[in-house]
Predict the 3D structure of the following.
Amino acid sequence: MKNLKEFDIYRCPVSHCIGWVDLIDDDNSSFFGCGECGSIWYEEKNFQKEITQIISLYEYRTKCYEEIGEKWLPALFENEDKNYEILVESEPFDKSKSFIRG
């Protein structure tokens, strides 16, 4: 049985995005998707890698995630910096031309 925390939604790890990422799992496909910026990760390892990259750039992002074993899971919302959205919106826009991130 999976840890229930795995089913929680994540903060999007894309620069300048204040959105939320959820695992979309239906009969035809499974992917992580952000409703705000439209980014999609078909491979969880790529999603995890992007979380690692964003928290290495912005310390306040670290409070959004909790490392369990070798995997990032969403941290409690209450752990976020009180100015989280203002801080993220001050980040540079992501330069990716594709919504598919891996």
